Amino acid sequence: MTNIDLGALLSRIEADSIVTADEIIELRRCIWNDNMITVIEADALFRINDNCQNKPVEWSDFFITGMTDFLVRQTMPRGYIDEANAAWLMQRISHDGVCETHTEMALLMNVLKHAESVTPRLEEFALDQVKQSVLESKGILARSASLTPGAMGETEVEIVRGILYACGSAGGNWITREEAELLFDLSDATAEADNHQSWQDLFVAAMANHLMMLGNTDKVDISEALRRENWLKDTDQSVSWNLGNAFKAWFGQRETPDMTYSILNTSEAVQSERITESEAQWLINRLNRDGQLSSNEITLLAFLKNDCPDIHESLKPLIQSAA
To answer: Would the pTM count as exceeding 0.85?
Structure first.
């Protein structure tokens, strides 16, 4: 089909505010006829997604696949989501900063998963969806039956884990300061809630990762990552995170292949790790923000006491007081 045919098809669907399964097949043929989606076509597909009601089940897969391909593989710089592309995506999938549909949230997660690298702003936006869901009951996550209102349930933890360790996350296999701040916000706000045990495991591991890793933000080669021990949950276990398995109950998506990310560095690097004065001061300020230590924070301090080889002196009194 020609571009004129595609334009006519898009115009017809938008005019009717209805998209059928047969029209999705036509759209697929038109758009991938030249293996390229233009910005005009991408905008039209978003309008269809926003305005057409009662879309067939085929729509979500078609739309997420097409938009991911457009953003990750076709839009410059290829493989990367820069500030401009992130801003375009966030504006299209959010309403007052909140994702309101399964398809929008699934697209965001799929872009994070497939991009080689994304701007930190996009990952922070994704994490903020969890924060708004848990703390303010906003967005599609808050309306999911599998989530726990006001607490970090198992599904919330898996969503956060998936965002943090997605291939394109801001720090790769390293937790950034922005990520650490948001995790602390979630921990503070849910300190008295009936959280799933995996939340404390993830919080402690992520904070230790942020404080003890060497700060290299280069992506780890997958063969090297798979070789390393994993300490997200248990230093004696390896962990894999499966997007499809974690979210299929509420995304309605088919399973995707396992993608394993290992975070612990080698024994030689462990000996060189240290918590610096600036890192210690940041942690002290965060721990003292609400005037009392939560269970997550006490467990974190115990972990650092036992496993960090070099802790700045300013942090040691707080560690001892929490023992």
So the answer is: no
